[in-house]
Specification:
D-Maltodextrin-Binding Protein, domain 2, seven-stranded mixed sheet, alpha+beta, homodimer, Fructose-1,6-Bisphosphatase, Chain A, domain 1, 14 strands
Chain lengths: 268, 268
């Protein structure tokens, strides 16, 4: 299957490919990067997050000057007005900032989704340290560097690899209570600390499910489409559809085959 | 501080550097590697584990023909006789085999410890995908590729990054009960699925603690010395000394500064 595209997806890919090199270079000299905490000591912000977001904002205003940008940093973390704001871009300049700062083989990525009338049309996630780029076009498929990707066909939770995330500390107890049966029953559990990594691994068949209790739209908007176009399934934790701006936070994205079993053991 | 060495450490380093290339090559074509399950579907064994162990066994019998080998695979997973077996090598050919088979930026390593009269004298861990090698000599220090390494100085659990491991399924409930307060209180939690990765990250200051309820000697013998020589602390979960062949399984290895706080919240 040849990679399909559209103008917005080309725009995403060009930005991701161009910006990955900058992010990878900054990571190589990360001891020189300015790091600030956003309150919670684990919620970090670097100059690299801000620069990537600014570069995207500048390029967007040149290319699609009437479009709306929703992004994690700098006060752009808001819910768009669905009636007035038809074309919306949802960006996380670095998902996995803590990993950028620390970690042996860290996973972090740049996440960009383009929504039209509330629905994600196309999306891309770049992983700068691997110099690779996941892309998806609604109805057209999902690719990693031009190669079609597909979820795994593992069907049982006790044979599955499940990526979880413990969230910030104030949500930790709720997570442990609701997800304890998953932690008891999954074949393997991993926690890489970056939603884009957890979800894109589901999309490429390297794990079976990704679970998070408190995700923001910019954390999953792009990767959700990539996983769905790779044959996966995405819902809220009660099984209802996962929309980008419905104000809710729990996310389950899986290969589809283990989805029902995981939903059945998540506590309400 | 220049890297110090001894004959056995030179032997370890030469083996690790030579074997890393083979393992990295095999990983590149991992879809061709034969994988078997050792019972638990998550407990995998590949031809690469067996080949690395056999190469080490062959080289050991040429170089130190009277020494004893304890290793994860092929029936060598035994406790040596402390009175008769003075010089013992403890080897995990691939720690993190599941990660070798699956995962976006997987962490796995080759682990070799040399024990004399029951005490680890020198040790090495290689991470083939990063082409890097951690080494330690008791009383002489710890290095990554010749550069001295040092644990972090973060002192509070709520600012610490703690690497945990959920173990195989039969031990999962015990882990969740004993470690629940750590999961609630740690600043960041990661689960990379390879003890050598978790422990070497403590040694190099990239995280603050590593916790596992059911580790085998070959999983930690080498990395423990690396962490201790980098300024870290290693104990059982009740705070007693961590010895390689005492028949017990719980392991806490930290930067020292957060050790007491973690011990105080592990449930008995």
């Amino acid at each position: 299957m040849k990679q399909q595209t559209c103008g917005e997806l080309d725009f995403i890919e060009r930005f991701l490919r161009r910006t990955s090199g900058y992010v990878a270079e900054k990571w190589e000299s990360r001891h020189l990067v300015t790091v600030a905490s956003k309150g919670d000591p684990a919620d970090l912000l670097t100059e690299v997050d801000l620069t990537v977001q600014k570069r995207f904002a500048d390029l967007l205003s040149q290319t699609y000057p009437h479009d709306v940008l929703v992004a994690e940093e700098n006060g752009l973390d808001r819910v768009p007005d669905p009636s007035a704001e038809r074309r919306v871009w949802v960006v996380d300049p670095i998902d996995g900032t803590y990993n950028f700062v620390r970690g042996m083989r860290p996973i972090f990525g740049i996440s960009i989704a383009f929504l039209e009338n509330g629905e994600t049309r196309c999306a891309g996630v770049a992983f700068p340290l691997d110099n690779c780029c996941y892309l998806a076009l609604r109805g057209g498929g999902a690719w990693c560097d031009g190669r079609p990707i597909r979820v795994s066909d593992i069907k049982k939770l006790n044979e599955a690899c499940v990526e979880i995330d413990f969230s910030v500390m104030e949500d930790r107890r709720m997570f442990m209570e609701r997800a304890s049966d998953i932690m008891l029953r999954a074949g393997q559990i991993r926690c890489c600390g970056a939603a884009v990594g957890g979800i894109c691994q589901v999309a490429s068949g390297e794990s079976e499910a990704y679970l998070h209790m408190t995700l923001h739209p910019w954390d999953y908007a792009a990767a959700q489409l990539i996983a769905e176009e790779a044959g996966g399934m995405a819902t809220r934790l009660d099984g209802s559809p996962l929309r980008v701006f419905d104000g809710r936070q729990g996310v389950l994205i899986s290969n589809g085959a283990v989805h029902r079993e995981i939903l059945s053991v998540i506590r309400p």
